[in-house]
C-alpha cells in the first residue's frame, strides 16, 4: 500500500474553505462576505485530505534516528534531538509532514490560524502560540519544547527563540520550485524523526501525481490570480504560486511583470485580454476569515464569463487554507494537486 493510501484510508472527508491567496497579515477576525454561488463554469473543490489516526501513526516503521542530528536550515546549522517529543511547530506545512510521517503526537504547540488544513484539525487545541506572523514568545517558551520549527512568516523571531530550545528555520530557499521546497521540508522532518524511507516514498508519489497533471495540462494557457478586498493581482511563473507553471505543466496566458508576494495588480480587462483557458483563483479574504465566496462575487461579470475559462468550465476556485496559509506538506500538497487536477476533468 502506498504512503498516500495509508495516510488517507482511515479518515473522514474534510470540506475546505474556498479561498484565494495574497499577502499581508494572516491573523484575522471573521467578517460577513458575499455569498454568490459559483456558476456552472466554475469549479470549487472539496479537498479530501485525511489524517492518520493514532493507531495508524503507531503502525509507522521504527525510527532510524538516534541521539541528535545536525540540521541545515535557512539561518545556519543546528543540532537537534532525534524523535523530539514536544515540538513547537510554527510552520503548518512542517506540522502536516509530522502527522503524515507518524509523528503527530510530538506536536506540542501550534500557531493560531484563520483555518487549519484537514490533516491538522485534530490538533486545533494546540493552537496557542500566537498568530502565524506574531508568535507569542512567552507561550512558546512556556510550552518547554525540545525543538522549535520556524518558517518564513516567523523567521524574524529566530534569535529570540534559539536559546529556548534548538530552533530551525525551514523558510523556502530562494529560487527553488514549490515542489522542490516541499521536498526539502519533507526530508528534514523525515530526518529528525527517522522516517527517511517514508519521506522519499511520499516525495516520489507527489512527483508522480504532478507529472500526470502536467501531461494532461499540455501547456494550457492559464492565469493564477488572487482576490483581496475587491481587488485582483496576478502571479506568474516565478512567483510564490509558480507551481502551476513550473511543476504542473500550465503556460502563462499573459506576461506578469511583478513577481513579489503581492503579485501584479490587474483589472477585469487584463483577464479578458489574456483570455486564459484555465483561471486559478485564490481568495485571500476567505483564507484569512474575512467572509466566504468573495472571489465568486467579484468575478461574476461578463468579462470573466466570456473568457475561454469562463465558457469551458475552466475557473478553479482553490482552497485558501491549503494554498495561502499552508502551501505544502504531504497531505496538503496532495489536496492542492487534487484541486488543480479537477479543472482538467
Short description:
This protein is α/β, with parallel strands linked by helices and 345 residues long.
Tally the beta strands.
Answer: 14
Provide the domain count: 2
CATH C-level category of the largest domain? Alpha Beta
Secondary-structure element order, N to C = HEHEEEHEEHEHEHHEEHEEHEHHHHEHH
User: What portion of residues is helical?
Assistant: 25-40%
What distance lies between the first and last C-alpha atoms, to the nearest angstrom? 26 Å
| Overall CATH architecture of the largest domain | 3-Layer(aba) Sandwich
Enumerate how many helices there are, as a single number. 15
Shape: globular
CATH superfamily of the largest domain: Nitrogenase molybdenum iron protein domain
- Share of residues in strands: 15-25%
Mean pLDDT: 86
**Uncertain segments:** 1-57
How is the CATH topology of the largest domain named? Answer: Rossmann fold
Rg over CA atoms, rounded to whole Å, is 20 Å
Largest sheet: 7 strands, mixed
Characterise this structure.
- This protein has 345 residues and is of the alpha/beta class.
- It has two domains: 3-49 and 218-342, Rossmann fold (3-Layer(aba) Sandwich); 54-201, Nitrogenase molybdenum iron protein domain (Rossmann fold, 3-Layer(aba) Sandwich).
- Helices cover 33% and strands 18% of the residues.
- It has 15 helices and 14 strands.
- It has helices at residues 3-8, 54-58, 92-100, 137-142, 158-161, 178-192, 196-217, 243-246, 268-274, 284-287, 294-298, 302-305, 308-311, 320-326, 330-342; strands spanning 42-44, 68-73, 76-81, 87-89, 107-112, 127-131, 147-150, 167-169, 221-228, 231-235, 251-252, 264-266, 278-283, 315-317.
- The strands form three sheets. Strands 1, 9, 10, 11, 12, 13 and 14 form a seven-stranded mixed beta sheet that branches. The chain has a five-stranded parallel beta sheet with strand order 6-5-4-7-8.
- Helix 3 (92-100) packs across helix 6 (178-192), helix 6 (178-192) packs antiparallel against helix 7 (196-217) and helix 7 runs parallel beside helix 15 (330-342).
- The longest helix has 22 residues, at 196-217.
- Residues 1-57 have low confidence and may be disordered.
Amino acid at each position: 500500500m502506498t504512503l498516500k493510501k495509508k495516510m488517507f484510508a482511515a479518515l473522514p472527508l474534510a470540506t475546505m474553505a474556498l479561498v484565494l491567496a495574497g499577502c499581508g497579515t494572516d491573523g484575522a477576525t471573521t467578517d460577513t462576505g458575499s455569498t454568490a454561488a459559483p456558476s456552472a463554469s466554475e469549479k470549487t473543490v472539496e479537498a479530501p485530505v485525511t489524517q492518520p489516526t493514532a493507531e495508524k501513526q503507531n503502525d509507522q516503521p521504527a525510527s532510524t534516528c538516534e541521539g541528535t542530528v545536525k540540521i541545515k536550515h535557512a539561518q545556519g546549522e543546528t543540532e537537534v534531538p532525534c524523535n523530539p517529543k514536544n515540538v513547537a511547530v510554527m510552520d503548518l506545512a512542517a506540522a502536516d509532514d509530522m502527522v503524515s510521517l507518524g509523528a503527530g503526537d510530538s506536536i506540542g504547540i501550534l500557531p493560531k490560524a484563520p483555518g487549519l488544513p484537514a490533516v491538522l484539525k485534530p490538533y486545533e487545541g494546540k493552537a496557542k502560540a500566537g498568530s502565524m506572523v506574531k508568535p507569542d514568545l512567552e507561550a512558546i517558551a512556556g510550552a518547554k519544547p525540545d525543538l522549535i520549527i520556524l518558517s518564513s512568516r516567523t523567521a524574524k523571531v529566530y534569535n529570540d527563540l534559539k536559546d529556548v530550545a534548538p530552533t530551525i528555520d525551514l523558510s523556502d530557499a530562494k529560487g527553488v520550485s514549490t515542489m522542490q521546497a516541499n521536498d526539502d521540508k519533507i526530508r528534514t522532518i523525515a530526518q529528525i524523526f527517522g522516517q527517511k524511507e517514508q519521506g522519499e516514498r511520499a516525495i516520489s508519489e507527489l512527483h508522480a501525481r504532478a507529472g500526470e497533471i502536467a501531461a494532461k495540462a499540455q501547456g494550457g494557457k492559464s492565469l493564477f490570480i488572487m482576490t483581496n478586498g475587491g481587488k485582483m493581482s496576478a502571479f506568474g511563473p516565478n512567483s510564490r504560486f509558480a507551481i502551476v507553471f513550473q511543476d504542473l505543466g500550465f503556460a502563462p496566458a499573459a506576461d506578469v511583470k511583478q513577481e513579489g508576494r503581492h503579485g501584479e495588480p490587474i483589472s477585469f480587462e487584463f483577464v479578458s485580454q489574456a483570455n486564459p483557458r484555465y483561471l486559478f483563483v485564490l481568495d485571500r479574504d476567505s483564507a484569512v476569515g474575512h467572509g466566504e465566496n468573495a472571489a465568486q462575487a467579484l468575478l461574476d461579470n461578463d468579462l470573466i464569463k466570456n473568457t475561454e475559462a469562463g465558457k469551458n468550465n475552466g475557473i478553479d476556485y482553490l482552497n485558501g487554507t491549503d494554498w495561502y496559509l499552508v502551501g505544502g506538506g504531504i497531505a496538503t500538497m496532495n489536496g492542492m494537486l487534487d484541486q488543480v487536477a479537477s479543472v482538467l476533468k
